[in-house]
Amino acid sequence: MNNFDQEISKYRKNTGSNISKIEKKSKHKHQYEECIIRYKFSFMGKNNLHTELSSYCTICGKIGDRFSKEKSIVEEKTIHKQLPNGMKYLTHMSGKEIYEQYHDILPVFNAEFSDKYIDLNQREN
Ligand SMILES: [Zn+2]
To answer: Which residues contact 57 (CB under 8 A, 6 or more apart)?
Structure first.
């Protein structure tokens, strides 16, 4: 077997398993649960993490929309902060702050920005 044939058989094998995986999961109504997704990306040669409150289908792992305020368990999305001069202001919780407060409650997944699905086996907590 030369390298070309090996590449082809590898490709065929992957395609086959992907198709059966999708077929198995295609006939269902997505069941979205709230979760935290940590997107890894590199910027200027450094690895960065972008944390976002999101939702995922518990059956197939499809990434859904962020839940509405009414549906979300993350209650206070605005937080009070104080400037060094004592001035108070309101701001939204950052993804990082949501992660710090909710990673014990919500499932956490790692993904890439291009991903449409999270890997259900890669749940962090
Ligand atoms: Zn689904």
So the answer is: 30, 31, 32, 33, 64
Number of domains in the chain: 1
CA of 20 to the centre of ligand 1 (A): 15
CA dihedral 104, 106, 112, 117 (to 10 degrees): 140
What separation in Å is there between the alpha carbon of 86 and the centre of ligand 1? 48
97 neighbors 74 (Cβ within 8 angstroms) = no
Ligand 1 centroid to Cα of residue 53, in Å, is: 18
Q: Is residue 67 part of a domain?
A: yes
Rounded to an integer, the average pLDDT of 86-107 is: 90
pLDDT at site 107: 96
Find the domain containing 76 and state its range. Answer: 30-122
Note whether residue 8 is domain-resident: no
Q: Spell out where 1-125 has E strands.
A: 32-43, 46-57, 63-64, 78-82, 88-92, 108-111
